[in-house]
Amino acid sequence: MTDKLYHECHDLIRQGRAVLQELQEWGFESVTVTAFEPTEPAAASAGKKTATAVSAPETLAELEAGLQGCQLCPLCQERKNIVFGQGNPQADLVLVGEAPGREEDERGYPFVGEAGRLLEKILFAMNLQREDVYICNVIKCRPPHNRDPEAGEIATCEQFLQRQLEIIKPRLVITLGRFAAHTLLQTAEPISRLRGHWKEYRGIAVMPTFHPAYLLRNPAGKREVWQDMKQVMQRLQG
Fold first, then answer.
1. Mean pLDDT lowest for which of 7-11, 110-114, 180-184?
2. What is the CATH number of the domain that holds 236?
3. Which of 14, 16, 92, 217 has the highest local Cβ count within 10 Å?
4. Which domain holds residue 120?
């Protein structure tokens, strides 16, 4: 074994140990890697939904292209990029957050900041990667100083989230945080009461849970989120 290969293997082992140590915070001691086969990327699974994709009057790419230069609300004045969404356009599972942050606005992709890295760890524990699911937000442009989205902004942008879900046709949706849950479920019930209980949006099963940003401030909530994710995995396996 060359010195370079040795050091690469050593780094991979060290990184793996760090991930497993963090996963212990979620309340489990092992990770199952064979129980669920994730949805294939669009190119690999074209034959499965080709008829639907061809006959659909609109694709995600077309919807995203139509949003470029959007000026429907004041958020357009300070944004750098519209953060439309990212992932498998034929995913069985869609994760919906509230709005882009600073890093998302800079790069144009959802959940790429610290909360996004935590979300990737959650997906890893579920034997999933970003490429297996679709990730988006209720609001497509960053609110100034990362403030909460306003009611008018949500009302303006909600139509695009609805269209995304109509095009993807997922089996399940996870709403991350209260704004996503309130928008899709049309309720003002606190997220602490909503989380962990299956809801429905236009025939799609919805699991509300805490936002990863909340978990960064309140690590004790990780165990509750993991309980929610176990329910999601059971549905996906079923």
1. 7-11
2. 3.40.470.10
3. 92
4. 81-238
